[in-house]
Amino acid sequence: MAEVIMPKMGDAMTEGRIVRWKKRPGEPVARGDPLAEIETDKVNVDIEAEEAGVLLQILVEEGQSAPVGAPIAIIGAAGEEIPTAAARPSPPAAAPAPAPAPAAPSPAPPVPAGARAERVKASPLARKLAEEHGIDLTQVRGTGPGGRITREDVEAAIAAAARPAAPAPAADYEVLPLTRIRQTIARRMTESTQQAPHFYITMEVVMDEALRLRQHLNQALGATPPVSVNDLVLKAVALALRAHPALNSALVEGAIRRYRRVNLAVAVALPEGLIAPVVHDCDRLSLTEIAARTTELGERARSGRLRPEDYEGGTFTVSNLGMFGDVDSFAAIINPPHAGILAVGRALPRPVVRDGQIVPATTMKVTLSADHRVTDGAEAARFLAEVKRLLENPLLLVLDRR
Asked: pLDDT tens digit string along 191-208?
């Protein structure tokens, strides 16, 4: 008999939430079978069975969370007796109940209904009827002479009290709880905008040569998957970071950490939120290797099968919304603790001035968001100019490989 424990997927993970069990009690389990989908603060991933047998018991139900290392299920032989709860490790402790609210001050002693009723003008029959039905005459509007409460007034009050209260109107919105991924995005982006002083630089890149190179590469190599525009951008950014390492840095514990490796985090939009799997050593990969890596990471991200090492170790982020409709340009929020993030818009045919003549060209706007604590405008501008130079001279992306 073996316990399935909540795995630790990333240094920052302290607990995980069971999104869905993929096996039910009594079902056979083979080693490597997906057991459950776990939601961490970064991504949803499947955990696999490390033991073969039968899923005897689920200890943490769907929708509940458990700390790292806590038992969440038991696998054993068919018919094997399950140990009692006391014999198993304690389940995750429930959150302490909130302290009771301070007692409200005691209300003033009620005034006898009869005493209040004596102060209002009412007919004897109305008083008698009100007393029989528990009607407070001070709450009844009299329609008799001088505001005197009549029998008809009390009867109307009795009828009104007997009617069921009108149902509350339905709210014109729905309340959706934050997923753990969305909670993490909210916390990290808030920290980024509050702690990292952003500044932004935008440049327009002529993409005709890059698009031609991409077409030739995909036709000549029959590349599968094909090289995308984003792969060209990643290669250009990686080489530019190698030449301008100040942007390949982070402010950590009061010091600037300048990374020796260029690991690009690539923003991927999922229904649950945004995640950024990492292309490690991107500056040392060929365009076809980058295309294979980004395709693999994107597919694993969308299927919830990213591994912890897939989204750790990033040193700079690229976010491309060019493929989403008419996004010409945008400014992204830095993914902390990175020193910068590059936001990429769509490539679009536009008229440009070349040698004094207006000619058609396909251009793309890129916007760098940089942390002013780590770098300055001139340095950031030189980095972005290098990205532009590489994309406008794309043979440099093919020839460079170290």
From this structure: 999 999 999 999 999 999
